[in-house]
Task: inverse folding
């Protein structure tokens, strides 16, 4: 996801939620689709696509999503919105296909019984002076704060 869209609101914020499907939250800001299209077409992405897939990937879906999203934003075209939403659903299905087709690993129904057992002694000793451990002690009031940094 592009960094430029990190502080943007979703496209459905200013719309009556009764008029939209329940999963309308899946539609990203339009700028997100534009950034994904630009990234998909970049030289770096093309090298990566060729390395992973043996050919370049078709990026037109990102472009179509951007156009449909802008049509939704400007004209409140519900059909365009539904097209973007359907595209998002398809992306999720594609992304999850590999893990669902996996017949090697058995998925857990619940965590292991001993998931929160204490770490081994050697690991506790190794992490005794780690940044996180010191911050935890500061938070608990067990130690005084220090911000000495040696460069």
Result:
């Amino acid at each position: 996801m592009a960094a430029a869209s990190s502080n943007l609101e979703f496209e459905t914020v200013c719309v009556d939620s009764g008029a939209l499907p329940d999963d309308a939250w899946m539609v990203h800001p339009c700028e997100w689709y534009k950034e994904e299209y630009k990234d998909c077409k970049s030289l770096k992405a093309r090298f990566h696509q060729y390395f992973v897939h043996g050919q370049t990937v078709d990026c037109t879906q990102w472009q179509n999503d951007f156009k449909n999203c802008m049509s939704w934003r400007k004209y409140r075209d519900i059909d365009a919105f539904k097209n973007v939403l359907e595209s998002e659903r398809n992306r999720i299905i594609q992304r999850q296909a590999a893990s669902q087709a996996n017949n090697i690993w058995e998925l857990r129904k619940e965590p292991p019984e001993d998931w929160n057992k204490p770490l081994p002694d050697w690991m506790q000793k190794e992490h005794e002076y780690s940044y996180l451990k010191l911050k935890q002690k500061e938070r608990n009031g067990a130690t005084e704060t220090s911000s000495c940094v040696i460069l």
